[in-house]
Amino acid sequence: MAADDIGNVRLGTRRGGQRTLSTPPWRAPVVRVRASTAEDEAAARALAARLSLDIAPRPTPGDDAAPWTLLVDGHRRMLARPDGVRLELDFVGGRTAARQQEAGLARQPLARALGVTRLRRRLHRLPTVVDATGGLGRDAWFAAALGCPVTVIERSPIVHALLESALDVAARTPATAQTAARLTLLLGEASQRLDRLGARFADVIYLDPMYPPVRRRAAVGKGMQFLHDLLGPAETSASLLDAALATAGCQVTVKRPSGAPSLDGGATFAGQRTTIASPGTRYDLYLHLDPIAGTR
Predict the structure, then answer these.
(1) What local confidence, expressed as pLDDT, does residue 20 receive?
(2) Domain boundaries, given as residue ranges, for the chain
(3) What CATH code would you report for 94-287?
(4) How confident is the model over 152-196, as pLDDT tens digits?
(5) Where are the alpha helices (DSSP H) in 172-286?
(6) What's the CA gap between 288 and 269, in Å, rounded?
(7) Under a CB-based contact definition with an 8 Å cutoff, are residues 173 and 240 in contact?
């Protein structure tokens, strides 16, 4: 059977009645910074210098070679692909903000996986959380909306810049300022950052490595398409889970697709392992037998 292309995922031959997946080698896209207006040019130049990126020339009519572009528009930043599709992270409106207003927030699967109610009873305070794989920031914002102090680690300077602007806008908005104040944003590789934070830095370390490519690109949300294109393969080495286990005071929570294998690592972990399932998602919990409150 001939192979065919769907998005950036190549579908190959069938084995045992199932179609196998193969992906072309990943290459990081070239991203340039552009100001939306003349008033934004100074901020765009400063951001480009900080990220070591070039300034994009203003587009001209008929220009078919548009690069990936990080747009600066006042306090807002957006990432545009060459096809014109844009991504802006938003904690003030849309699905993320609506989720914060839902009833029974503490009973949702993610809240239970983070152990918010259980650890609050044990520690007599809300747990501190490190989201070591920040991404779009939705789960970190959810934890902060529950009242938890959250440190977010993001490895991509581009995604970090998008998170930074989204948090800035949220901090300037009265309805979300209190939640935004609970979030601290760090740039760096997760395992290296966790090692530098030190043992028992936080009560909970949360890991959500990117899911592997799926058969249909259309089945993947726009934000995840951007992350796959920008970041390439997820960090799934054993060092990531091992660093998280060494940094967590009480537990590590790992988000996985239903049916996916557990994250590599944790070979010497002697604590309790358990699972919380939700539709399409599984949370693997690694609970220390001698929990010590984080020192943050």
Answers:
(1) 40
(2) 1-88, 94-287
(3) 3.40.50.150
(4) 999 999 999 999 999 999 999 999 999 999 999 999 999 999 999
(5) 177-180, 190-197, 222-231, 238-247
(6) 9
(7) no
